[in-house]
Amino acid sequence: MLNGDPMKRIPLWKRIMISAILLVMVLAVPALAGPVAPDDISNANPGFIAAAGEAGLVVTDSEGGSSGGLADSAWPKFGGPDLNNTGQSPFVGAQTNATKWIYATGGQFRSAVPVIGSDGTVYIGNYDKNVYAFNPDGTLKWTYTTGGYLSGPPAIGADGTIYIGNYDDNIVYALNPDGTLKWTYTTTGIFFGGPTIGPDGTIYIGNTGSDRSLYALNSV
Fold first, then answer.
1. What is the spatial distance between Cα 171 and Cα 219, in angstroms, rounded to a whole number?
2. Same domain assignment for residues 121 and 57
3. What integer pLDDT is reported at residue 111 of this predicted model?
4. How far apart are CA 164 and CA 194, in angstroms?
5. What is the CATH number of the domain that holds 170?
6. Is residue 68 assigned to a domain?
7. Distances 82 to 8, 49, 70, 91, 207 between C-alpha atoms, Å
8. Does a structural domain hold residue 204?
9. What is the per-residue pLDDT across 43-72, written as a single tens digit (0 to 9) for each?
10. Domain boundary at 24, 44, 61, which?
11. Alpha helices in the chain (DSSP H)
12. Residue 35 above 50 pLDDT?
């Protein structure tokens, strides 16, 4: 049996060469995304997702993390626009903390997170049982009243359909972009979290309570 540090048995010149190769590999990875200006992502390598802003450039490999069946928008679901839930958006947001608009609803937002459609519409569920759709200027676009409290965030499909699970009536709702009902699916458990959408458009959502199941639903 050999004793001691295995690296000490490697000649010094080989150790230096290995270290140099590793250093080159580390330095080369950011360059693969191409030069990206703070407000321009058009030059980025399409194999990468880039988020640019004043804080710098964040580059992640998009393989296995593309938006797939999600809407092509800045924030189509909880966790951001990619399937890895990185919380990174390829769009540069507001650079100041000034309030743009306020809208008073009829209930609380418990674990609710807004999502944004490709046309800029903001969708969010409320404890008053309503799904709200707001125009980018903060005016109300429409509301849809469900059968119970809404706690988790929605998700938006590539065709604009809004999917949301209900905390109180155990139902998954699919709403058209105009606020009309597309379909529902009834389960036996409550929904705390929101759905996500796979590359083929399949909607995945898990519930709790007596059910404790993961559901995979077809989009049509």
1. 15
2. no
3. 82
4. 6
5. 2.40.128.630
6. no
7. 44, 9, 8, 13, 22
8. yes
9. 333 333 333 233 322 333 333 344 458 898
10. 61
11. 12-28
12. no
pLDDT in tens, 100-158: 999 999 999 988 889 999 999 999 999 999 999 999 999 999 999 999 999 889 999 99
Phi and psi at 15, nearest 5°, equal -65, -40
Give SS3 for 161. Answer: coil
The beta-strand segments (E) located in 72-161 are 115-116, 122-125, 130-134, 140-145, 155-156
User: In the chain, how many domains are there?
Assistant: 2
Considering the domain architecture, whether residues 30 and 119 belong to the same structural domain is answered as no
Considering the entire predicted model, what is its pTM? 0.67
Across 89-96, average pLDDT: 81
Does some domain include residue 74?
no
- Clarify whether residues 51 and 125 are in a common domain: no
Residue 159 lies in a domain: yes
CA distance 183 to 11: 68
Q: Please provide the distance, in angstroms rounded to a whole number, between the alpha carbons at the two ends of the chain.
A: 64
201 to each of 15, 67, 71, 88, 91, how far by Cα in Å?
50, 10, 10, 21, 23
Residues 48 and 128 in one domain: no
Instruction: Give the domain extent around 126.
Output: 115-217
